[in-house]
Write a structure and sequence with these properties.
Layout lengths: L1 E9 L1 E4 L8 E6 L8 E9 L1 H9 L10 H12 L3 E4 L19 H13 L3 E7 L6 H15 L10 E8 L10 H35 L5 E6 L2 H14 L10 E7 L21 E8 L4 H8 L7 H4 L11 E5 L16 H11 L11 E3 L6 E4 L1
Parallel strand pairs: 1-7, 6-7, 6-8, 8-9, 9-10, 10-11, 11-13
Antiparallel strand pairs: 1-4, 2-3, 4-5, 12-13
Length: about 375
């Protein structure tokens, strides 16, 4: 059996009598409010043979590795996982700076993460999308970590540690009702993530240059998780002095983003996302059924995760978009970030390859320097 550990943060309501050793997390916000965050670890046992089979499976045009089936297996394993939250001692009515003799779970987890990253590990924060339960979120995060660390094109000296942020996405598969509910909860959860990132900013600032480990932190948002990020920007901007947002990440990956196709343009809700990172990559798929459903049954404008940016020429030069249509497959074609070639392309960015590196399975598409097509 493989023993796996996952760090997490959540604003979901805990299940069970003990909030520090819960049995799980549900579909509602924490009783202490939507911005209240719990930090902790999930420890589970998984079948080695199932993992090896999924990682080694040839998926044709998608490449090597079946991340979706791996996520399903790990979701089942999460049902019997052990959860250990970092204990806190705070007054929820007071701002962090006004707490006396406080004990923050965030500080304890950041300290542990720093120790883990010092062993040649980059960290990647993963924010899931619409209609995802607690167990499914854990399964997807661990599958993402295993896929990234088993890419044939990776730097073998570098490890990637995935950190899950999970928000109260229904997980009920009610196409119309739960979509509207999840969208509202994603907006509220954006403030919680923003609060967590501000805590991370303050932690890093307190370390100073001598205390930094030299590794990078990255961010990957999937589907409606990108709408959550849209609201993260508002909260960070409110608590950041000056005219620029803090550069917290090496790379930001917007995968199958369920947001408007104009959202990255100047003056639009995510027009400043590039300020948070060295590079931003948008992965989209014209055959993504979930994007079509979002367009036509939910009354949304064209989705960024479908045809890509409406006007690529208006994007900041740090923003690149990658068309995954030629290699995406499956009934829904929505979780292709877990597929071999797309996942490997994400890993190559983490490892520092430039967008035009010849080792990538992509070609420049059209007359734009920031538009690519997977091959």
């Amino acid at each position: 059996m493989a023993k796996l550990t996952l760090y997490y943060a959540t604003n979901r309501k805990h299940e069970g009598k003990d909030r520090w050793s819960p049995t799980g997390y549900g579909k509602n916000f924490s009783d202490d409010g939507m911005e209240n965050l719990r930090f902790g670890m999930v420890m589970l046992d998984a079948d080695d043979n199932e993992i090896k089979a999924a990682l080694g499976k040839n998926m044709g045009a998608c490449g090597k590795g079946d991340g979706e089936s791996l996520a399903k297996h790990l979701t089942k394993c999460a049902e019997t996982a052990t959860i250990q939250a970092y204990p806190e001692k705070i007054d929820p009515k007071l701002a962090d700076g006004r707490q006396k003799n406080a004990k923050f779970g965030s500080l304890a987890m950041f300290t542990d993460l720093k120790s883990a990253m010092e062993k040649n590990s980059d960290a990647l924060i993963y924010i899931h999308g619409f209609n995802v339960s607690w167990h499914e979120a854990v399964g997807a995060a661990l599958a993402l970590e295993l896929m990234l660390n088993n890419s044939a094109l990776r730097d073998p000296k570098q490890h990637v540690l995935v950190i899950l942020f999970t928000w109260p996405s229904d997980g009920l598969a009610l196409p119309y009702v739960s979509y509207k509910s999840d969208r509202s909860e994603a907006a509220g959860s954006g403030y919680a993530v923003g609060r967590g990132l501000l805590k991370a900013r303050d932690f890093l600032a307190a370390l100073g240059k001598k205390g930094l480990c030299g590794q990078d932190i990255h961010l990957l948002c999937h589907s409606m998780g990108n709408y959550l990020l849209q609201n993260v920007l508002k909260r960070i901007d409110q608590f950041t002095p000056g005219n620029a947002l803090p550069r917290l990440f090496g790379h930001i990956f917007l995968c199958a983003p369920d947001v408007d196709d104009s959202v990255l343009e100047p003056g639009y809700p995510m027009g400043r996302v590039h300020e948070l990172a060295r590079s931003v990559s948008v992965y989209h798929n014209r055959g993504d059924v979930a994007m079509v459903v979002s367009d036509y049954t939910k009354g949304n404008p064209e989705r960024l995760g479908g045809g890509g940016a409406a006007r690529p020429s208006l994007l900041h030069n740090k923003v690149n978009q990658v068309d995954c249509t030629p290699i995406a497959s499956g009934l829904v074609e929505h979780n292709y970030y877990l597929g071999g070639h797309t996942n490997a392309d994400i890993r190559q960015s983490i490892d520092g390859l430039s967008h035009d590196d010849k080792r990538r399975r992509r070609t420049q598409d059209g007359n734009f320097a920031n538009v690519w097509r997977m091959t």
